[in-house]
Amino acid sequence: MTLHRYAPHLRATFALGLPLVGSHIARMAIGVADTVMVGWYGVEELAALVIATSFFHILFFLGMGFGIAVMGVIAAAIARGDEVEVRRATRMALWLSLGFAVLVLPLMLFSRPILLALGQAPVVADLGQQYLRIAGFGLLPVLCALTLNSYLAAMERPQIVLLITLVGLPMNVFLNWVLIFGNLGAPELGVQGAAIASVATQVVQMLALIGYAAWLPLARKYRLFQRFWNPDWSEMRRVFVLGLPIGLTMVAEGGLFVGSNVMMGWIGTHQLAAHGIALQISSVTFMLHLGMSNAATIRVGQAKGRGDAPWMRDAAHTVIAVSLVLALICVAVFVLFPQFLVGLFLDPAQPTTPELLRLGASLMFFAALFQLTDAMQVIGLGLLRGVQDTRVPMVLAAISYWVIGMPVAYGLAFVAGLGPAGLWLGLVVGLSVAAVLLMRRFWRGFARGDWTRAAPAR
């Protein structure tokens, strides 16, 4: 009886979640390709890439809240047949994404003083600014593509998102090979070549998503791009109020990892490079849970739009169970094959490779520790976003990551003298607290009936 009840939810979760997982992994693979290929180029360049992409991602996290916020809004609007709300929410999310990308661009164009103030070595800060002065122009296409991803996924068309992202991966790798190392007669540009390759790929992906969204017969009734320039101030305010807390939540979480990058840079360049590799591997597995979190947002948003409490409960149980199984698989892989995983990012001919391999493999044990709690905290966020609850989760995230996680990381690494291991234990603590608080909020709200009151048509 139980299997019969959950079977439709399991099929729907996989149908939505697996393409979203694939698209997130393919998108992350672009960053992995940059890390691997710049790692082959040089250790200082790799350290600069780690800190520069961390800087980029903090701004990306802050701006991505608008695109993420509309996923649950669109799913609920479609469930109740509100075509106008689908268009209004998506369009204003695109407006906000465009405005944010333009607003923060100067921070990347003149990032060297910021990187120096964060305690990075001058050579790392110089190379980091070289990267960001090009990569900064990729923020606009990335944020717009994210909003279109939400739009298409909420219409249960995640497969095209996966396809477009996959096409971008070989393009990025090829351009990296040409521009980082100076192949096929191109200039040898190092980290600048990696930035050019990423921006070119991001622009192509955004244009492909725009073309598909305009063509898709199912989406034509929403008239997304018709009179796109017309403002809708009340809807923009609503998306802003929903999206800003999501962006700040992402900054709080991402900032925990960026803060660990900064502190690892205080310990040493080699430690920072090894830390970047271990964190990159963990980020790839995190994409599994992020895709399932997106599926949770859509499924729960659909239930909210219909006011269907049993459906919401079963959909939530299903996505939690799937994510837990995936997390356990990741734990096993991290514990059994740490040196193999780290070695994928290193050139055996480099003299620093043995030390980086030893450092990176030792950190993989700690990466395995937080797989379960990292999975549960992002699923908790996805469930809460589906019911359009974003402000309190922002506060819970800030407390978990910065009031608890970051001080513990600093204390264990520098006061207790545990070094890199202490930093990673701090990450485990922060993520564990977040998982407990976020899941508690969702299920308490569900028990009170807060999430299943059908939203009125707008």
Summarize the structure in short:
This protein has 458 residues and is mainly α.
Topology:
Layout: H1 2-41, H2 43-63, H3 65-79, H4 83-109, H5 112-117, H6 122-135, H7 139-154, H8 158-181, H9 191-215, H10 233-267, H11 269-306, H12 309-336, H13 338-343, H14 353-369, H15 371-386, H16 391-415, H17 420-448
Helix pairs in contact: 1-2, 1-8, 1-9, 1-11, 1-12, 2-4, 2-6, 2-10, 2-11, 3-4, 3-7, 3-10, 3-11, 4-7, 4-10, 6-9, 7-8, 7-9, 8-9, 10-11, 10-16, 10-17, 11-12, 11-14, 11-15, 12-14, 12-15, 14-17, 15-17, 16-17
Annotation keywords:
mainly alpha; 17 helices; globular; 0% strand; 458 residues
Sheet with the most strands? none
Instruction: Kindly estimate the percentage of residues that lie in beta strands according to DSSP.
Output: under 5%
Give me the secondary-structure category: mainly alpha
- What is the number of E strands? 0
Overall pLDDT, averaged? 88
Order of helices and strands: HHHHHHHHHHHHHHHHH
- Overall domain count: 1
Q: Which overall shape is indicated by the principal axes computed on the Cα atoms?
A: globular
- The rounded Rg comes to 21 Å
Which stretches are poorly predicted, pLDDT < 50 over at least 5 residues?
none
- The rounded distance between the terminal residues' Cα atoms is 38 Å
**Given the structure, what is the number of helices?**
17
Helix content: over 70%
